[in-house]
Design a protein that fits this description.
It is built from 9 helices and 7 strands; from the N terminus they run βααααβαββαβαβαβα. It is α/β, with parallel strands linked by helices. It folds into 2 domains: 130 residues, HAD superfamily/HAD-like (Rossmann fold, 3-Layer(aba) Sandwich); 48 residues, thrh gene product, domain 2, CATH 3.90.1470. α3 runs parallel beside α5.
């Protein structure tokens, strides 16, 4: 039995925080896990900016409503689900990602939760599980699944390392040189080719 785990932003969807940064003109919100491996440090940085600027969930959902999956992502996800179970493991939040799941054909999504104030402020966040991507892959392996995983960023590394086969998708150049043992896919066609070779 095989199963594929994918990161969400940067693999199937554009980076939500970058879209928010561009809409609001707050360039500092363009910082992502490709730049900052410490997720809690990155989220505290983001929450401080939102608090300072008075930006709440309503404004962010407006931006999310304008987003579409990355070119080729819908067709790729449809093909993948026709071959093998697909689980999306993401460090995003259900309040961000759920409006976009319909556009991807509702793959199973494991992610985190935002803690919202009564007026729609984003007060904090709650992890579903610390290092949830790696622990989810390990749990699937304990259920006797062979896991193929793909991600684009530093917060995907433990997932890729835990998987039976990890694939980097459009990673930063620095990651390519730091982790040369992972195959690299630069588009969904090559990601499909990599996965097809591994499917039995």
């Amino acid at each position: 039995m095989q199963l594929v785990c994918l990161d969400l932003e940067g693999v199937l969807l554009p980076e939500i925080w970058i879209a928010v940064a561009r809409k609001t003109g707050l360039k500092e919100l363009e910082r992502t896990t490709r730049d900052e491996p410490d997720y809690d440090k990155l989220m505290r940085y983001r929450l401080d900016i939102l608090d300072r600027e008075g930006i709440g969930i309503g404004e962010i959902r407006e931006v999310i409503g304008t987003l579409d999956p990355l070119p080729g992502a819908v067709e790729f996800a449809e093909w993948l689900k026709s071959c093998v179970p697909l689980i999306v493991l993401s460090d995003t939040f259900s309040q961000f990602a759920e409006p976009l799941m319909a556009k991807l054909g509702y793959p199973a999504l494991f992610c985190h939760q935002l803690i919202l104030g009564a007026s729609g402020t984003i007060d904090d966040y709650k992890l579903r599980l610390d290092d949830q991507k790696k622990k989810s892959v390990n749990a699937f392996q304990n259920l006797n699944f062979e896991v193929i995983a793909a991600g684009d960023s530093y917060n995907d590394l433990t997932m890729l390392q835990q998987a039976d086969q990890g694939i980097l998708f459009r990673p930063p150049e620095k990651m390519k040189s730091e982790y040369p043992d992972f195959p690299v896919a630069e588009d969904h066609a090559s990601l499909r080719e990599n996965i097809e070779k591994l499917l039995r």
